[in-house]
Amino acid sequence: MRRDQLEELHYITPINNIPSILQHGILSHKRAERIAHETVALQEVQERRKDKRLPTGKWLHDYVNLYICARNPMMYRRRNLHLDLCILRISPEVLDIRGAVVADRNASSEYAAFYPSPEGLRKVNGELVFSEYWTHPDQILEWEHKSIKCAEILIPDRLDPSYIMGAYGSARQSVKCLRENELTGNIVVDEHMFFL
């Protein structure tokens, strides 16, 4: 994948977290444990992530995880919650944050490879990440594609809210709620992102 193919990154979160995000930033899993918040995280995935150490020496839970494309298996699993969720649109400038890491697939995967950002983007299969679906007749290929579809950019500790460019909501009421919570930027309805 080339950097110029990346218009934005994504962060999936409950809309109710927006006031906290605007005040504190997007926090790593470890830092977020210290403040009240709602989560969409899948417990079985978090169990894998908590014990994962990156080549940097830091733990995976020490990073904010941004998806290269939020229309992925995680969103598909949470599509029934779409009215309560949003996808924050994050500036690709975060690729230049010191210590940022590129994961070529879901970072919890035992097959994930980690690279310094932004150079590591070259190791991401953009065609698979941005493909419409990840299903295949061959089960092994499907598992691999499903993991690659969840490629991540990992930001150490905290992401300042100034990097938020806007958001996607699944319906007009979601967008209205985002604006009422004082989120600014390009906020639009995009049912497709939520598998509707």
Describe the structure.
With 196 residues, this protein is α+β, with helices and mostly antiparallel strands. It has one domain. The protein has 7 helices and 10 strands. The chain has helices at 18-24, 29-32, 43-50, 73-77, 126-129, 139-148, 172-180; strands at residues 9-14, 26-27, 63-67, 85-90, 101-103, 114-116, 152-156, 158-159, 164-169, 186-189. The strands form 3 sheets. Strands 1-4-9-10 form a 4-stranded mixed sheet, with helices on one face. The protein has a 4-stranded antiparallel sheet with strand order 3-7-5-6, with no helix packed on it. A two-stranded antiparallel sheet has the order 2-8. Helix 7 links the parallel strand 9 and strand 10 (186-189).
